[in-house]
Amino acid sequence: MRLREFWALVDEVLGQAYGRAVATDQVLGELDGMTAREALDVGVEPRDVWHALCDALDVPEPQRWGSDVRQPAPPRSR
């Protein structure tokens, strides 16, 4: 997953305003207490940040990948 794909999913799945706010403010235990934006800034893989954000927000697996039901979910790298 590329960074632009991460932000596209944030906008589509969570909504642009809410998703951007959550990415900036939500502390994620899976990412050592960083926010999604902080984790991305220090080089954490976007797919790992996406999984952590979805886990924290209890986003169901089928809804995590947007409207394209054929798009495979990127695996976690950790």
Descriptive key words:
globular, 50% helix, mainly alpha, 4 helices, 78 residues
What does this structure look like?
This protein starts with a helix and ends in a 22-residue tail after the last helix. It contains four helices and no strands. Helix 1 crosses helix 2. The chain has one domain (3-60). It is mainly α and 78 residues long.
Whole-number tally of structural domains: 1
Structural class based on helices, strands and sheet pairing? mainly alpha
- Summarize the amount of helix as a percent range: 40-55%
Low-confidence runs (pLDDT<50, min 5 residues)? Answer: none
Q: What is the number of helices?
A: 4
CA-based shape: globular
Largest sheet composition: none
Oligomer category: single chain
**SSE order, as H and E?**
HHHH
- Rg result: 11 Å
Distance between the termini: 14 Å
Number of strands: 0
Mean pLDDT: 91
Strand content: under 5%
Task: Describe the SSE topology.
Blueprint: H1 3-14, H2 16-25, H3 36-41, H4 46-56
Helix pairs in contact: 1-2
Write a concise synopsis of the structure shown.
The chain has 78 residues and is mainly alpha-helical. It has helices at 3-14, 16-25, 36-41, 46-56. The chain has one domain (3-60).
